[in-house]
Every structure is written in C-alpha cells, then in structure tokens.
Amino acid sequence: MKKISLIAAMSENRVIGRHNQLPWNMPADWQNFRRITAGKPFVMGRNSYLAPDKLLSTSRSIILSHSEIPDLCENCIRAENWETALSLLQHEPEIFILGGQSIFEQAMSFANYIYLTVVHGIFPGDAWFPEIDKLEWKLIKDRFYHRDSRNPYDYSFQEYIRAG
Prior knowledge:
By secondary structure, this protein is an alpha/beta fold. The chain has helices spanning about 25-35, 45-50, 80-90, 100-105; strands at about 5-10, 15, 40-45, 60-65, 75-80, 95-100, 115-120, 125-130, 135-145, 155-160.
C-alpha cells in the first residue's frame, strides 16, 4: 500500500499559518522535515506554492490548482484535481502532502500517515490543521523537546497512523 503522508507543523491551537507563512521559526522542525522528506515528492495547494517560504521537493512537486500558474519551477507540475495528482505519483512508494488548510482537510479522508510537529504555544493565524479524530488515527510516536538557543518554543514530533 502506498504511504500517503500529511506533514505539518501546528501550534497548540492548531494554527499552521498566518498571512501565508509559518508564524514561528523553528530550525529543529526544518531539519526534521528535510530528513523525513528527502528525495520524496510533494503535493501542495497553490497558496503553499506561492508562499515566500515554500518548500519544494528535489523529486517532484505537484501543485493542486484549477488556475494556471505562471513560471512553474523545474520539477513542478500543476494538477487540477486529486485524481490527476495521485496518478502522476502512482509509482512513488511515499508522497507528502504539505497543505495548506483546505488541502489537508481534503486529504484527511485518504491519507494513511501523519507527521506532525506541535509547537507548544498559542499563535494567531488564518489557517489551521484539521482536528485529528482519535477513532480514525492512532498516535504511534510522540517525542517532546525543550526550547533551546535556536528553537524559541518547546515542541513535539508526533506520528500517527490510520487506525484499522
């Protein structure tokens, strides 16, 4: 079975963005993200692709959008729907869904893994990670880390697998 993974960083109040950017700077989260996703393809929405701090795969990045996107980067492909996006990646053993909010909401029904960084703080925002239904998802890893000189907030790396 193909591993379809959501990967996100959220605050304790589930904020994942404000004005199309992360509301914090956590180098440990970036290192963890790069380690987990190295060489794997990404799927993201148009706003995530247009964000100033966008993340692109060294493999392929699929951007879900009904509208044309001018000047797509190398290894970036626009897909109008999930069916097209997933068919473009049908031979990949694992794909990563990077968001934003509506993309995460749509993918919660068919993803089977979640990598989640929880930044322990409350932040204002305009984009949120969906609620994780404890009947549908099982927490299998939860590692807590204290803030340090480079990471201004306590944080946890969590991993969930679809139950059943």
